[in-house]
Every structure is written in structure tokens, then in C-alpha cells.
Amino acid sequence: MSSTIRLTMAQALARFLARQQTEIDGETLPLFGGVWAIFGHGNVAGLGEALYPHRDALPTFRAHNEQGMAHAAIAYAKANFRRRMMAVTTSIGPGATNLVTAAALAHVNRLPVLLLPGDVFANRRPDPVLQQAEDFGDGTVTVNDVFRPVSRYFDRITRPEQIIPALGRAMQVLTDPAECGPVTLALCQDVQAEAYDYPEAFFEPRIWTPRRVRPSEDELSAAVRLLREAKQPLIVAGGGVLYSQASKAMAAFAETHGIPVTETQAGKSSLPHDHALNLGAIGVTGTSAANALAEDADVVLAVGTRLQDFTTGSWALFKHAGVKLIGLNSQAFDAGKHRAQPLVSDARAGLAELSADLAGWRSPAAWTDRAAAARRDWQPLADAATAPRNDGLPSDAEVIGAIQRISGSAATLVCASGGLPGELHKLWQAGAPGSYHLDYGFSCMGYEIAGGLGVKMAKPEADVVVMVGDGSYLMMNSEIATSVMLGLKLTIVVLDNRGYGCINRLQMATGGANFNNLLADTRHVALPPIDFAAHAASLGAIAAKVGSIAELEAGLTAAKSNDRTTVLVVDTDPLITTEAGGHWWDVAVPEVSPRPAVEKARAGYEAALGMQRSVG
């Protein structure tokens, strides 16, 4: 008969998490880097007490905002290429629902995070408890049901023994390259404290290593046939290249077969920016080099990308009449998009087998020569955009140039939303894999600073630079204090264009009036004189307002020797954006309007619609 140990459900959960391991570069490490926790009446007595004995092997970190700590956990997993991850626990009610936005971000970006919100009493004796939302027609509903559509796996633990199969399923999802995403285990607060005789075997250490699915013979043969027939092939490198740690395989494949490489937001840094075959960003925020070749490509090998609209120019970018897609992806859902030839496989394994079966084949020299010329033509345009003008307020691109000059390609750049991702995608010169860290799947305002914190936890020796606009800073900035508290030094550059400059430009481009985006165009009695530097200093950071690109560079240089998080604030022009590169993006313009500017924008929109490929 197997031996058992009597524990509460919460104690069993904590003990299980502390025993899960991974192996990276020959070193065995804890799979879970820790647990983020804001305690309340839904988790402090149960899970809080259970985590205490494991506080060394499974550290518990306290943050200042539930969404923020979940963003930090997600960024930690992304920076670790999904090889390590974190758990997040909250009380019931608003503490739990504050996690939903982060859950959606992880779901969209296919990133692992274990969410452990408290829940109501399973026994229902004290119903309704504090913060319980009652459904008049369904007694089983709680606010945690909002996690269902944004979780890869959802479970509610209403008996202590249920945690055994629930954790088994959770681990399969969190570590599977195809299913990967957020897992939510809603923990009824009375059940957290209930005991059960758990099998000791349940707590045996387990090492989780990446599953590398290899392509089927039929799909591999079909993909090889398409590539051998190609005259103008192109690679689109997505985030799956990084998560598979396939950067070397990608470089070898491109070099062996002479195929130019373009990068999505998630895939940027798959190749170093100075690699001869790297044409840089593709799509709406792409370089002119990448997009020019994408328009004429006859075979597109999409590796580890879900082919969202910014990558495909709303499916109007690939203009070759006979263009064929090959979807090399661990998830069949992505591999077959738009009638692509699916190649369901791990990126590293798939590229290796493709290369072996393509032995002796290279794309025509004229095509690779054209790629080299396009790359040479793009670089002066990028240099011009990032060079200081010393005339009026600087642009976002000029700020990027300053950070690049001082921090270099070795720094890890973190950003998420607004106009910055578009400029960074084109202009940032990424070095090592993972040195470009953006959420642009969900493009979530508020991710930046919390995400930077998670990246620093994953890469404590790295120079982590966070770029954030004033609007996103105001939405979520409290984890500056957490970074100071934990001794995790960040360099944060706040670009203040006094509103939502990116959306204001989009509003203007679609014929709209300047309305409700820049603070000056909102309904107001008086505009608040926001002192971002003073605010950041009040959270414990070293902070300063800089008046020019030269002052910014001096501040960035000084930040290198500062002993804690540094925040530099610079005013920027809300209207200037890099004109070079880019592509049309499908943003629906009203069919009718009393405003001539909207009617004009609609006519242009209808003309552009004709470029789109039909959805398959």
C-alpha cells in the first residue's frame, strides 16, 4: 500500500509546486521561479500559511497591483523562453478579477502562468461571503468564471483531492509548446484549509523538458517540394523561434539555403540585427526591405508565428499571384492558417529536417542579391530617423536612437503599447535572442514596467531598459516601488507626449477630428501639471526630467552606475512618426459621415481593401 501524508489542499499545492523542476544548459532548476501574492481573506489563511514553509525553495513576492504582478510573472516566463514560470495568487472578488487582463495577455501570446485566485466557500454555509457576486439563476457561478475564455485550462477546486488531477492537467498545459498558455485554478477558500491523505508519490520531484514534435513525412515532403520550386522564398520568424531556442538553427537554415529572414514583433531578435540575411521587421510596422521582398515572395515559410494582422498587413502584404504559405508551427491551429501547407513541428526540429531534405538547394542568387541591396537601402533611412534633429521636441525614434547609442544591442528592451512598438519594431537593433521583449499580441497598456520587473527577475545580470508612454505610465506604475523593494534595478524612459499620441495619429489618418486622445483635446477644466519624475521619485526611484536628447544620453550613462531603478522623463512630439517602411493596416472607416475628411479616408480605405487575400 502506498504511503500518504496528511496535508491541507493549499499545503499540497505549495509542496507540489516546490518540487517541479526543469533543466537548462545541463543545470537543474526549479520550474517555478516563485509565487506572486497579494493576500486577502480568500487566500491568506489557506494558501498564505501553506507558502510560508516553502519561502526559500518557492519564494513568495509581494507586489502592489494584481494585474501588475501577473504581468511580471508572464514576462518572467517569456524572458525564460517558457522554460521557467511563476504562479500568482489573489483573494476573491476584485483581487481575482484584476488578473483577467493579464490572463488574456498570456492567452494571446501563448505564455505560461499559473493563476490561483481565491474563490467562494464550496460548502456555501456562509453565503454570500464578502466580495461574492451572486448569479440569480446559477448557484455555481462565481466571478472567477470570467477566466474561462482566457485560460487554456480552468478548474475550480471544490474538494481537496481534486487538486491532484487538476495539477496534473495544469502542468501538461503549462509545459506543452502547442497548448501553452494561462492556467486558472480557482481555489475555494474553505477547501484550501481542508485536509486529505495525499499519496507521497504525488510530491516526487519531476523534471519538465521541452517537447520537440517532429514533422510527419507527408507534411515534410510537401513543404520541401514547395521550397524546391520557389524562386523568391522568404522566412517569417515568429516567437516560436525564440521559445524553441531555434535561433542558431534559423541562421544555419537561412545561410545554407540563401533565404532572407523577416521578423514579427514576437520573433524580433531571432537573428541579430546585423545578420546579412535579416531584413528586420515585417508588416504594418515593417522595414521597407522586408516588406518589398514580402510583396514579391512566391513561397513564405512562416516559422512559429500566428500570422496576426500586423504581420501580414491585414493579409494584403503578400501580393505575388501564386504565393504559397508553409506554416511551421507546433500548434496545428496556426500551421494551417490561410490555406497554408501545414508543417506541424517544433521550430528547431522542423528547420533541421527541412534543411536535410533540401540538401543541395539554394534560392536563386538574384533573389538573395536583391535582399542584400534592400537591406543596404534601409539602413540609412533608419539612421536618419534615429539621429537627433536638435529642433523642437524629439520624436520617439530620436529617443530610441539615444537609448541604442548608450545601451547598445546587448541591453534587453521592454515595451508594449502605443506608437513605440511600431518604431521599435523597425528601428531597434536587437542583439542576442530575447533582447527585444514586447507584448504586441495583446498590446496591453500597463505591461511595460511590470513586464520589465519580470524580465529583470529572469535575467538579473542584464541591463533592462523599459520604454513607456505617459498614458501607459499613468495606467500602471506601482511596480516601480516593487523593483526598488526587491533590489531589481531597471532603467525606465517615460516619453511624455501629453496623451495617447499613437491613437491620435490613427484618428487623423482615418479622417477623424482630434478628439479625446491628446489631453488638450479632451473635455477638461484645467490640464493637470503632471510631474512624472517627482512621482517616480516618490516610489523610491532615482528620477529626473531631461530637456534634450543630449541630456537623455547623459542620464542614461549615469543610470548605469545608479544603485536602483532610474526613471528618465522626456517630452516628445505626438505627431512625428517614421515615414519610411510600414504598410497599410485594415482599420474600418465609416461608410457615411457628414465630414468630408472621413469620406475621403473611406474612399482610400475601399481602394486598399482590394489588396486583401481572401480568408481561408
TrEMBL record:
A single GO cellular-component term from the record reads: acetolactate synthase complex
Q: Which UniProt keywords apply?
A: Hydrolase, Thiamine pyrophosphate
What residues does the Thiamine pyrophosphate enzyme central domain cover?
221-354
Where is each Thiamine pyrophosphate enzyme TPP-binding domain found?
421-570
Which terms does the UniProt entry file under GO BP?
A: inositol catabolic process; isoleucine biosynthetic process; L-valine biosynthetic process
Broad EC category: hydrolase
| GO molecular function (one) | thiamine pyrophosphate binding
Q: Which residues form the Thiamine pyrophosphate enzyme N-terminal TPP-binding domain?
A: 48-131
Task: Report the EC number(s), separated by commas if there are several.
Answer: 3.7.1.22
Q: Which PROSITE patterns match?
A: TPP_ENZYMES
Question: NCBIfam families, from UniProt?
Answer: myo_inos_iolD
Return the similarity comment. Belongs to the TPP enzyme family.
Q: What is this protein called?
A: 3D-(3,5/4)-trihydroxycyclohexane-1,2-dione acylhydrolase (Decyclizing)
* Organismal lineage: Bacteria, Pseudomonadati, Pseudomonadota, Alphaproteobacteria, Hyphomicrobiales
This chain is encoded by the gene named iolD
